[in-house]
Amino acid sequence: EETIGVTKTGQSKKKKTSWWTEEMRDAVKAKSTAFKHWLKVRTPASRLEYEHKRKAANQLKRKLKKEQWVRIGEDLKADFQCGRKLLYGMAKSYRNGRSQETSPNVLDKDGNILRDKEEIDSRWQEHFQELLNVGDVDHETLTTNNETPVSNKEVHVSDITLEELD
């Protein structure tokens, strides 16, 4: 039987993760059930049960992700000796999934990438000191049209009239 005029809209490819297994699904389901139970009864025992299941689910997730990265590394090592298709495919997918505008690197004033944690912390401190500590402000720069300088004193603002809106 042939169907004409049927289109699928709004469907996209779902990303598949190899670490999402039946075991992981069951752990997340148990955690969610424990959380809902804790919300209903609000007892310390139900809270501890939820925290235990949450911790177990997170540990399992970390373990499965670590195993996945080991498998990916082994696949890359094997593929690198035969060809580089897998390596370049992964690089392309990561590049396309990430914004090109942002960079996780911290640069010094000359544009060099900082690697040392102390240098990075120092650079952030320097950046915010420059950004936030303006210092003494020259009152001449704050005056416009020979008006009095702006200060912390109360400023009287009159109501807007209809003539000003036109």
Keywords:
single chain; 166 residues; mainly alpha; 6 helices; 58% helix
Account of the protein in words:
The chain is 58% helix and 0% strand. It contains six helices and no strands. It has helices at residues 22-41, 44-82, 85-97, 117-132, 139-142, 162-165. The termini are far apart.
How many angstroms does the end-to-end distance come to? 69 Å
State the share of residues found in helices, binned by percent: 55-70%
Order of helical and strand elements = HHHHHH
Query: What is the beta-strand fraction?
Result: under 5%
The tally of beta strands, per DSSP, is 0
Question: What global shape is seen?
Answer: extended
Summarize the main sheet.
Answer: none
What structural category arises from helix and sheet content? mainly alpha
Mean pLDDT: 76
Residue windows where pLDDT falls under 50 for at least 5 positions: none
Radius of gyration: 30 Å
Tally the helices: 6
- Quaternary state reads single chain
What can be said about this structure in brief?
This protein is an all-alpha fold and 166 residues long. Helices cover 58% and strands 0% of the residues.
List the helices and strands and how they pair.
Elements: H1 22-41, H2 44-82, H3 85-97, H4 117-132, H5 139-142, H6 162-165
Helix pairs in contact: 1-2
